[in-house]
Specification:
mainly alpha; disordered C terminus; disordered N terminus; single chain; 11 helices
């Protein structure tokens, strides 16, 4: 009896195994899914994709567009870390220069009135502590970074929808986050320059060509090769994710980016004229 139970048990298990091998799972196109074509779940933090976005944007944005979940956390964390390191180095060099009595004057110092120059020197003496050198610039930069990401994503999503795109807000957040990685390269190049030069950067971007025009200076402060690189990645990313024609994507991205650039420059000019202090480092 015990032998019959063992043989029957073995027979039942073998039948179940043979039936299990015949079961085939099919995808949405009716093709059988195997281990090779079943997509692995997307990781929330995928640092290996950073170089792929910079070196192979067309292929990488195609993969990002196929994902069904958020992947913006990785680039935004990297951007936050690079901004933190840049401010840390800049704050250290600025504090060291202040302790040695070296005050870096703004590029348009000669055009300031005596009262503005006096207020500037007094402000420099009052802002030598770690709060003004590290904490406030870091908080301001991080708030500006994340607000810039949200506002730009929302405006680009709205613009692409008006032009006929059918992407989601989540996809816009992903594209804008990954497309901002050139600014990480810019931050690290700035860090290397500041460490080699021994002082912080006073004329970022192309602002050295602006002369005494405050508004033009604010615009050129934010324009450099990395800004153009970011625009190119935005055009590639939204062209793939929104399935729009090249001309519509270029018009939508350039219009939104120029609008934000003018708003940021206008606010920077207003702040500079009210306080008498030039904005030294833009968020983007």
């Amino acid at each position: 009896m015990s032998g019959w139970n063992k043989s029957s048990h073995f027979f039942v298990n073998s039948r179940i195994y043979s039936l299990w091998k015949r079961v085939r799972i099919f995808d949405a196109n009716g093709k059988p899914m195997t281990q090779s074509n079943v997509s692995a779940p997307t990781r929330k933090l995928d640092f290996s994709r950073i170089l792929e976005v910079l070196l192979h944007p067309q292929r990488t944005f195609s993969l990002i567009a196929e994902e069904a979940q958020a992947s913006w956390l990785t680039p935004m964390l990297v951007l936050s870390v690079s901004a933190f390191l840049s401010i840390l180095v800049s704050g250290y060099l600025t504090s060291r220069a202040a302790m040695m009595g070296e005050v870096q004057l703004p590029r348009d110092w000669q055009y300031w009135t005596p009262d503005m120059q006096s207020n500037y020197m007094q402000a420099q003496q009052a802002m030598q502590g770690p709060v003004f050198s590290y904490i406030i610039p870091l908080i301001t930069a991080l708030i500006g970074l994340w607000l810039w990401w949200l506002i730009l994503s929302g405006l680009l999503h709205l613009g692409s929808t008006l032009l006929g795109g059918r992407g989601s807000m989540q996809m816009a957040l992903n594209i804008v986050g990954w497309a901002a990685l050139p600014f990480v390269v810019r931050d690290f190049l700035r860090i290397i320059f500041m460490l080699l030069a021994g002082h912080s950067i006073t004329s970022p971007g192309l602002s050295g060509f602006a002369g005494s025009a405050v508004f033009i200076s604010q615009i050129l402060t934010r324009v450099d090769i990395f800004f153009i690189w970011n625009c190119i990645l935005l055009i590639i990313g939204f062209g793939i994710s929104e399935n729009l024609s090249k001309n519509r994507v270029v018009v939508g991205v350039v219009s939104v980016v120029v609008l934000l650039l003018l708003i940021q420059s206008g606010l920077g000019s207003l702040l500079s004229s009210v306080s008498g202090l030039a904005v030294q480092r833009p968020f983007f």
